[in-house]
Design a protein that fits this description.
Length: 724
């Protein structure tokens, strides 16, 4: 891969002073005709230079413009060229554009990396030609690029987008077309629109950085199938989310989806857990499906962030209000009781059977004036930070007039604090005109209460992340690790152990050696020794001090440590018990199978009674580097998916979140009359594991288990390290 693009905005691509259309056509049904027509219809304020050899030779115009016969006839240094040619003609055209020092090019043709080896070679040739000339390259397999601020629509999209505040990028051209069509139906406008295609040069990182710096963009949306440079993407995403909300839909989260990604763009989808961790740590809001991406985009593009979690639900029907309340229970939003002054205003304005509490039910016969009075009172209440208005099309309801009342209340003096408003006008034809009024007023309208609550919850979470410093970069992660006491001088010894094993050709390190490396890396390891005879076991038990535990130490024929069983004898208090345990364990040697032989027993200090067995570890992901995991020890934890993940390096907030995300977290807090474990010690363990993963790049992975956690601390009882 070529070097990543600089962090500067993609000005030649998105704000070109002149745009050439290579393969421009008079026929608007052809790709070259669509692109040229879109440029003309969008009111592009730059120069348009169509290239059509046949029309130029015949002295004819192309959609009213005088064409050029060849790319060689272009002026020197044109900002943007859109290549509307088949694959076999694309590379020669790109080389001619490079000779004319064109600064950016869009390749629309498909048939490159996604088709196999020959296509991949053709794409590599495009990449080399563009990067060698210092040219930005969007695509191939792209729908094009749009920037509504300068009237640029250099795409073959069938829908002309409105000008707005949403910046969007996508690997899939079809997704781009679908989003454009949906946005038109919602009255949602776009600032910039990039169809990345196969991402030969311009990828998600460059798009994120440009949109983050674009003053026209208020919210960034992305559809992602794969990421080639995880570290670059993560850095760009962190920079972007510090300035604007970023919503992203990651496709290929299943085995079937990953195969489809490879067929679509020829790229590997990557580990779903790694992507989820990357997006979460960068502050990106990951969405599960297209409907959610669109519904959240409506809220972020039109509404301010709430200054707190208090939501007022106003409804003319009890059922939708209850559904909204249920949705709030699983979110960061609350339903506060209105203030005494607000209750007094509501009671005076509403019928006797109405409910002035939250949700505020103003009954099925409510008209626009009743909505007006309730909205005025709720918007002025300082305990309310956001307002959700529900309407069902009862015979007495007047949806369109109520929508106008809602629009006026959102921008009226009662809402001087700038609280976000959302609506849920349930129904179809009966509320269609009302929804159009709301869209024109910039108030997001949803089909059902749950989607509306989800959108307002996303706004609330965004406000909280900005004001509680939830985002941390690598420098902050290192500082957190040092502050937590993970800066012991372990590096040389741990690296020496790993390098020595690597030099011997081992693929794994286990037993005492693995524990020594982990201990050298600053993790809390139980004192452990290898006893080859019962006499050595007695000596080690005396040195360690009772109580101790014993388990078999086994090795495979490949010299890699075999899977070690759990301690067969725990909390042995005296030498006689240690001797008996040693002989009983080694007598079972024949049960280990012909390819595994026993080399003795591990003698280990016993952890305090009542500890909870946990597991922690990491695997080095191809895109994003070390991916840490944490959960209860045992097959049930993996089977049920009760494992949390984060990418190294960790910040303290990341380690804390890993503990809270597992469903077993109440056990760690002392549920069921158990003693609570030391959460601070667990956080330190995860931070130290993160540093080990970062500082020992020859480790392909590590598994710590069991990790025994109790009130007195956390103790690593076993470890296996993978080399790669």
């Amino acid at each position: 891969m070529s070097a990543p693009l600089p962090a500067a905005p993609l000005a030649p691509l998105l704000s070109p002073a002149a745009t050439a259309v290579i393969g421009a056509s008079r026929n608007r049904a052809k790709v070259g005709g669509m692109v040229l027509a879109n440029l003309l219809d969008a009111g592009y304020r730059g120069s348009i230079l169509p290239v059509n050899p046949a029309a130029a030779g015949a002295g004819e115009t192309v959609q009213g413009l005088t064409p050029l016969a060849s790319c060689r006839d272009l002026p020197d240094g044109v900002d943007l060229a859109v290549i509307c040619l088949p694959r076999e003609k694309t590379l020669p055209a790109l080389r001619e554009l490079a000779a004319r020092r064109v600064r950016a090019a869009v390749v629309l043709a498909a048939g490159f990396r996604e088709t196999g080896r020959l296509g991949a070679e053709a794409e590599q040739a495009l990449r080399e030609a563009a990067s060698g000339a210092g040219m930005l390259l969007l695509g191939p397999n792209s729908l094009g690029v749009i920037n509504s601020a300068c009237g640029l629509n250099a795409s073959f999209a069938a829908v002309r987008p409105r000008r707005g505040a949403v910046g969007f990028f996508s690997q899939s051209g079809a997704m781009c077309a679908s989003i454009l069509d949906w946005a038109a139906s919602q009255g949602l406008g776009f600032s910039s629109f990039l169809s990345l295609g196969n991402k030969a040069l311009v990828g998600e990182a460059a798009a994120l950085r440009h949109l983050a710096a674009d003053p026209e963009t208020r919210v960034i949306l992305g559809y992602c199938e794969s990421v080639e440079d995880g570290a670059e993407f993560l850095a760009a995403a962190r920079e972007a989310t510090a300035r604007k909300p970023v919503l992203m839909l990651k496709a290929g989260a299943t085995a079937a989806g990953a195969r489809a990604v490879s067929a679509h763009t020829g790229a590997a989808s990557g580990s779903p857990a790694a992507y989820r961790a990357a997006l979460r740590q960068a502050g990106v809001i990951e969405v599960r499906e297209m409907a959610q991406l669109c519904s959240l985009a409506l809220a972020f593009a039109t509404q301010p962030l709430p200054r707190g979690p208090g939501l007022a639900v106003l409804t003319n029907a009890g059922g939708p209000g209850i559904l909204a309340a249920d949705a709030c229970a699983g979110s960061s939003l609350t339903l506060p009781r209105p203030s005494a002054e607000t209750l007094a205003r509501l009671t005076a304005a509403l019928p006797g059977f109405a409910s002035a509490y939250n949700p505020v039910d103003i009954l099925g016969d409510a008209g626009p004036e009743r909505y007006r009075a309730a909205l005025s009172a709720l918007a002025a209440d300082p305990q309310i930070h956001a307002v959700l208005t529900l309407l069902t099309p009862t015979p007495q309801a007047k949806p369109e007039a109520t929508a106008k009342v809602l629009a006026a209340a959102a921008r009226g003096p009662e809402n001087a604090a700038g609280k976000p408003f959302a609506a849920c006008f349930m129904g179809g034809e009966a509320v269609a005109r009302a929804r159009a009024v709301l869209a024109e007023a910039g108030i997001p309208a949803y089909d059902f209460p749950e989607a509306a609550v989800e959108a307002l919850d996303a706004l609330c979470r965004r406000h909280r992340s900005l004001h509680h410093g939830d985002l941390a970069g690598p420098a902050a992660c290192e500082a957190d690790a040092v502050a937590a006491g993970c800066d012991a001088p372990w590096d040389d010894e741990a690296a020496h152990i790993v390098d020595a094993a690597y030099g011997l050709g081992l693929t794994e390190i286990g037993g005492v050696t693995a524990l020594e490396a982990v201990h050298a890396a600053g993790l809390p390891v139980l004192t452990t020794g290898l006893a080859r005879t019962s006499r050595e076991a007695l000596r080690l038990a005396a040195e360690i001090g009772p109580p101790v535990s014993l388990r078999l130490a086994v090795q495979s024929e490949s010299l890699a440590p075999a899977q070690e069983p759990e301690p067969a004898f725990a909390r042995l208090e005296n030498g006689a018990a240690v001797r008996r345990a040693f002989h009983r364990l080694t007598d079972r040697a024949e049960r280990q199978g012909p390819q595994v032989y026993v080399i003795g027993c591990l003698v280990q200090a016993a952890a305090p009674a009542g500890c909870i067995p946990l597991t922690a570890g990491f695997l080095r992901d191809a895109q994003f580097g070390p991916l840490l995991s944490f959960g209860l020890r045992g097959p049930d934890s993996d089977l049920l998916g009760d494992v949390s993940h984060r990418l190294a390096p960790l910040a303290t907030a990341d380690a804390r979140a890993m503990l809270r995300e597992v469903r077993a977290y109440p056990l760690l807090r002392g549920a069921g009359r158990r003693p609570a474990v030391s959460l601070a010690a667990l956080e330190r363990l995860l931070l130290a594991l993160s540093r080990m993963a970062v500082r020992l790049p020859r480790l392909a992975g590590a598994e710590l288990g069991p990790v025994l956690a109790g009130p007195a601390g956390v103790f690593v009882a076993g470890a296996r390290l993978s080399l790669g």
